[in-house]
Specification:
homodimer, 6 helices, DHFR-like_dom_sf (chains A, B), globular, about 220 residues, nine-stranded mixed sheet, 5-amino-6-(5-phosphoribosylamino)uracil reductase activity (chains A, B), two-stranded antiparallel ribbon, Dihydrofolate reductase (chains A, B), RibDG_C (chains A, B), Dihydrofolate Reductase, subunit A, alpha/beta
Chain lengths: ~220, ~220
């Protein structure tokens, strides 16, 4: 069976994976880019954006596991955009096609979980956004069908990862703990007491200051 | 000036430093011993209890920084015991002298923060418990006077460490992140947004599975 994988999922010391006040200009709200500086600095991230250079140590090694073997992604609507509610009726909503420009880095089908379905959007480079009103089990069945024998990436945000973890549908979870105290936002760990009993956990600190934690389902 | 140091302060992935339901039998409530297994296994901890053996790697190296150079400890009442309110009027209260037996491992004056002062208790081995109704600044002045030129250990629990951090009175903070999700309890990080701006942070993961984070005040 194909695996369900979470990669490069950054959390603060106090467990927040995103801040408050998400907007078009601040996808992670008041957290800004602080949770992902380690990722932006990697060769993997820079190459995704057509840039040369970048770090090539442990941060990059883990960052680079993001793409290989993935056949589809599932993401929450908050990762796709800052809008809530219906897609029509407000300026710019119907045209919104994500934060990632004309050629998103996914290159696979992407299933966006929303209570407000809309027609699929086919982007350049192989990414197609599908909008489905479905829970973890149903969306995973759709993603698996689209992915063939490849794995499914669970792209976030925190409430989506939490729901899949609560349903015990995650096989590989790569968390990056960033040494900042965000204070406010959305927590990853709420409602997951005893999660460690279902996973083997490895931790490795990076000279960049972050600590990677890799959860492998037992 | 002498330093204020926190050592071996364990927190769960979700930031809890103690569970709920503290009792005579469970100082850390439903967390049990899970937050401190790494510490119990060290040569340092075993030697404190007159036992031989124990781990001698990075966990022990950091655990062993606990004692040298310390001239006094400050602790919250919850670290001293599970009782709340007045010391008299209930069986066993007036006799309570801590969890640590006749010869506690502190070997210095220990200032217990409580709204219910009581006479000091002199134990074997150089530990004397003083009970004071005082905030961070005042208790630190008393501890410094007792410690001479030596450092002050801030012993916990989480609300006590949090108060001293909020007052910017901590110089050295050694946190150990244990890969468990406690779900409930008392959080260390609440109300400390932006703390990292005041500290340099180093992280090192141990083969035991925990990650040590050392905060040094800038």
């Amino acid at each position: 069976m194909s695996q369900v994988r979470v990669h490069n999922f950054s959390v603060s010391l106090d467990g927040f994976a995103t801040g408050i006040g998400q907007s078009l200009h601040e996808p992670f709200g008041h957290a800004g880019g602080r949770l992902h500086e380690w990722f932006f600095a990697t060769r993997t991230f820079r190459a995704m954006h057509g840039e040369a250079g970048g770090t090539t140590g442990i941060d990059d090694a883990l960052a680079g596991m993001w793409a290989p073997g993935i056949g589809a992604e599932i993401m929450g609507r908050g990762k796709f955009g800052p809008q809530r509610g219906p897609w029509s009726g407000q300026a710019g909503r119907a045209e919104w096609n994500g934060w990632w420009g004309a050629e998103p880095p996914f290159h696979t089908p992407v299933f966006v979980l929303t209570h407000h379905p809309r027609p699929s959007i086919e982007m350049a480079g192989g990414t197609t956004f599908h909008f489905i009103d479905a829970g973890p089990v149903e969306s995973l069945a759709l993603a698996r069908k689209a992915a063939g024998h490849s794995d499914i990436r669970l792209g976030g945000g925190p409430s989506t990862v939490r729901r899949f973890l609560a349903a015990d549908l995650v096989d590989h979870l790569h968390i990056t703990v960033v040494p900042i105290v965000l204070g406010r936002g959305e927590r990853l760990w709420d409602g997951l007491e005893g999660l460690e009993q279902r996973f083997a956990v490895e931790s490795v600190s990076s000279p960049s200051g972050v600590t990677h934690q890799i959860f492998t389902r037992r």
